[in-house]
Design a protein that fits this description.
single chain, alpha+beta, Immunoglobulin-like, 3 domains, 9-stranded antiparallel sheet, 28 strands, 25% helix, elongated
Length: 443
Amino acid sequence: MKIRGLLIAAVIFAVLAGVLYWSDHRKSSAEAAKPKGDSAPAILKLDENSITKLELKRKDAPAILLAKNGSEWKINEPKSFAADQSAVSGIVSSVASLNSERLVDDKSSDLQRYGLSQPSFELDVTEKDNKSQRLLLGDDTPAGSAVYAALAGDPRVFTIAGYTRSSLEKGLNDLRDKRLVTVNADKISRVEIAGKNGDIEFGRNKDEWQILKPKPMRADNDAVSELVRKVTDARMDITDSAATAKKASSAFGRGAPVATISVTGESSTQKLQIRKSKESYYAQSSVIDEAYNIGSDLAAAVDKKVEDFRNKKLFDFGYADPNKLDIHSGSKTYSLMRGGQDWWDNGKKIDEASMQSIITGLRNLSADKFVDSGFGSPQIEATVTSNDGKRIEKVLISKFGSDYLAKRDNDSTLYQLPAPSVDELQKSIEAIKAEAPAGKPGR
């Protein structure tokens, strides 16, 4: 029995020894088969902020040279153009942290087999210290999902993903700033329109637009902001053929003037001329040489009268809650003060619903037209204090035929108001009441 037990133990030991040997042998073979070092090493690791120049070279196109001036990129070759900052930043971001999919050859002696002896695309990257790197892209891999890549002077050959190649290999049209006006909308402080409807000029103080010409008037902020948005959103279509571009310039040259709009930013003024030829509109900017076809919406935005940009609202407090209301209507006079969430008149808490009715009525007063004369004896006087006392608006309202006229303090403009809106406000004033004590019905 002892001999039999020893034999079983010997067999088990032999099996375990064989398994251990096979496992160690397989592990050694697998490790020997691995490429030396990281199988997907980084190709470039650069500081994005240190990159000052990019040169893109494709076999079938002139080289594109981009240079950074301060914080702005500009195209210097093959011709001077404004650059699309977002598009250039995308290249910078991709090349600064360029990772491979895998290392194909750590010491290649034949770049031709990878299409790298005459690369289809080259990207030269220059940093602030004038140190430069040249990235070479060659053939697609047999599977077609990646491309061979190398650095000039480095014997290693990598593969990078096809989408990475797409993020780097950009053409001139991809990199040009396609805006017809390159001033940023939030930096524009002055806008001028010269057209068949006369000269109109707007000035901005912080977030408030004002009409300066033909004379100082309150401007509709939304209307002017929409004008600025349409102008700064206008893009040139540079995907058309040279023949189409030439046709657009010819049509612009013989077109009838619609308007010229000038916008002033922090350091420059740019102009956009708009003309109509047959049923199409064309525009030419002071920052580009060519003319381009544009949509009718931009033409319609600038082909307006000054009345289209005037502020028809009687009050500017908008949707902010006023701090104080002084109202006189007929025999009723109120000096209403806001305290926290409540309104008070001479120590009496005012019913919230009746106050909201008055505030809404004042907020909604809007002219349907402007007139030059006809203001009579005021029937309503209203002074609204808002913005923590920084804005005080005083308005007088008088009867005008079947409608009403209103004027603001220190403003010669006469606002014609439709009768229903003023009648409703008067009813709200008449209905002001103190809040009912708890447990008692309102009076």
